[in-house]
């Protein structure tokens, strides 16, 4: 049997059942509690012949590395999916969110699209390949992570395992409707605080008003020119001041005010250079007003990631997707960030995001996955592993 025959023999039963099982093992983050799903997946992959290692982060949280061993003549291929899902929200679902009901050709449940469906497809692809006995020249590595939805806990731990790389490509099944994304924006989240002095509200001249300092700071921030070059797949840099807190009582001059700012960066921008600009801005404000005091803290720092559409791995992958779907995708970019921000620099590999979920359903009520797309994804990942590694 060759890889094409193996792909043609793939049916829906196994991936549907596994996707349902994964949805039924609740792994909502926070708190995550990924240990149960990690142990479950570890058992089935180990039974299929992969070498499995559970990476414990805490008693309730774990990630998993599984390797389908080869003769190691060529670099490995890395498949990565996350165990955790976002919480449910308040809206009532049409099907119970952890029952994984099948209806209208779809499986319904939290994580169906983002990304237990994609994860089930990766796992079945790895098991198909393992059972086929086709000899591999490079390892297939599955990096299944905890904490993607909050802080990339698992991906950060796996990124430190540099002995596993460099890889030929990092493939991540974030929901894309089986379309191909090869660039994502970076994120730089800042917490800006102003520091004043309290006084009685009837004697404001005795205090230093931190809320008024923040007014000046935000005004300057809005005027700040952060340089960037428009990216063909991602567009431009964006900045949004999204929370503000300050003061405690109407009759007390506030001594503290805090805003949080969400910046989304594009390739070519340096997060360090942006921070320098912000600090210079604060220094200039202090020179203008000696009472002005402010500080900046970074709360999230993820670099933008991009792969050239001309990259061999991307061209090969696009051809495989075309072979399975009958339509050639044009690689695009996404604005959100994924575990790729940790894994791609660590494994020095091109990034490919392609998953069976509908991106519009991620983090939404009534999340579901179309079974036909799920099966297409298994075929894409099996064929990709075969073409990259045999
Ligand atoms: Zn996701």
**Domains (count):** 2
Q: Give the strand order, joined by hyphens, for the main sheet.
A: 1-2-6-3-7-15
CATH architecture field of the largest domain: 3-Layer(aba) Sandwich
- CATH class of the largest domain reads Alpha Beta
Helix/strand order: HHHEEEEEHEHEEEHEEHEEHEHEEH
Q: Indicate the structural class.
A: alpha/beta
| Major sheet details | 6 strands, mixed
Which ligands does the model contain, each kind named once?
Answer: zinc ion
Which value, in Å, is the CA radius of gyration? 24 Å
Overall geometry comes to elongated
Helix content: 25-40%
CATH superfamily of the largest domain: Zn peptidases
Tally of helical runs: 10
Percent strand equals 15-25%
Walk me through the structure.
The chain is α/β, with parallel strands linked by helices and 390 residues long. The chain folds into 2 domains: 3-184 and 304-389, Zn peptidases (Aminopeptidase, 3-Layer(aba) Sandwich); 186-301, Alpha-Beta Plaits. 34% of the residues lie in helices and 23% in strands. The protein has a 6-stranded mixed sheet, sandwiched between helices. Strands 10-11-9-12 form a 4-stranded antiparallel sheet. Helix 4 (112-132) packs across helix 10 (371-389) and helix 6 (210-223) packs across helix 7 (271-288). The mean pLDDT is 96. Zinc ion binds at residues 82, 114-115, 148, 174. The site of zinc ion (ZN) has 5 residues, from helix 4.
């Amino acid at each position: 049997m060759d890889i094409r025959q193996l792909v043609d023999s793939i049916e829906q039963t196994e991936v549907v059942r596994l996707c349902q099982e994964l949805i039924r093992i609740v792994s909502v983050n926070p708190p995550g509690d990924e240990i149960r799903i990690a142990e479950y997946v570890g058992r089935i992959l180990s039974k299929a012949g992969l070498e499995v290692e559970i990476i414990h982060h805490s008693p309730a949280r774990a990630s998993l590395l599984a390797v389908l061993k080869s003769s190691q003549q060529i670099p490995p291929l890395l498949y990565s999916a996350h165990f955790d899902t976002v919480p449910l929200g308040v809206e009532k679902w049409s099907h119970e969110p952890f029952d994984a009901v099948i209806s209208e050709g779809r499986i319904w449940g939290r994580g169906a699209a983002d990304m237990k469906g994609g994860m089930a497809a990766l796992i079945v692809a790895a098991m198909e390949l393992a059972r086929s006995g086709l000899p591999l020249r490079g390892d297939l590595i599955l990096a299944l992570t905890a904490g993607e939805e909050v802080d990339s806990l698992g991906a950060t731990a796996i990124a430190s395992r540099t002995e596993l790389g460099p890889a030929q490509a990092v493939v991540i099944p974030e929901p894309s409707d089986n379309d191909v994304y090869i660039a994502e924006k970076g994120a730089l989240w800042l917490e800006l605080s102003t520091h004043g002095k309290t006084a009685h509200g009837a004697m404001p001249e005795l205090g230093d008003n931190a809320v008024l300092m923040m007014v000046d700071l935000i005004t300057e921030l809005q005027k700040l020119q952060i340089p960037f070059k428009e990216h063909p797949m991602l567009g431009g840099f964006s900045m949004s001041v999204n929370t503000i807190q300050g003061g405690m009582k109407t009759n007390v001059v506030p001594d503290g005010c805090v805003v949080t700012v969400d910046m989304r960066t594009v390739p070519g921008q340096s997060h360090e250079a942006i921070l320098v600009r912000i600090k210079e801005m604060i220094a200039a404000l202090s020179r203008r007003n000696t009472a002005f005091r402010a500080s900046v803290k970074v709360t999230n720092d993820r670099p933008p990631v991009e792969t050239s559409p001309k990259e061999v791995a991307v061209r090969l992958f696009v051809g495989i997707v075309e072979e399975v779907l009958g339509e050639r995708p044009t690689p695009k970019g996404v604005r959100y960030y994924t575990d790729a921000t940790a894994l791609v620099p660590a494994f020095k590999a091109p990034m490919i995001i392609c998953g069976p979920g509908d991106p519009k359903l991620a983090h939404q009520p009534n999340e579901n996955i179309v079974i036909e797309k799920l099966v297409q994804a298994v075929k894409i990942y099996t064929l990709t592993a075969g073409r990259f590694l045999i």
